[in-house]
Amino acid sequence: MSVSERILEGRSVLLLEDEEMLAMLLEDRLVDAGATVVHVFGKVRDALSFLGSNGVDLAIVDVNVAGEAGELVGEVLADKGIPFVFSSGYDESGMDERWRNWPALRKPYGSSELTVALRQLVEGRPPAPLT
Q1: Is residue 62 part of a domain?
Q2: Does the pLDDT at position 115 exceed 50?
């Protein structure tokens, strides 16, 4: 994602990702896109605790976080009306039925897929579900 595409200008982002290198790369891309704050979590319980008393503008949520269901964080985000996209290395059959048509980025995804998904979240148009 290029710095000229500052589609997240002034926004805060929650990133739930247990793969440390991927989390660092994504954090850099989100900051490059203009995010003022990126809250990075590698554990579901930490993200849930944060969301208990804080809000964000949007989120990227890994479906499988070290064997835990990232979908639990998705439930809180959905209840709060916070736009988010799942991130998964699996197809939708590995997700709870409730979330199978929810927007998701399929790992490995590139900068262009990330940019499109973020732009859609910012514009209030959810990204397309996994296919």
Answers
A1: yes
A2: yes
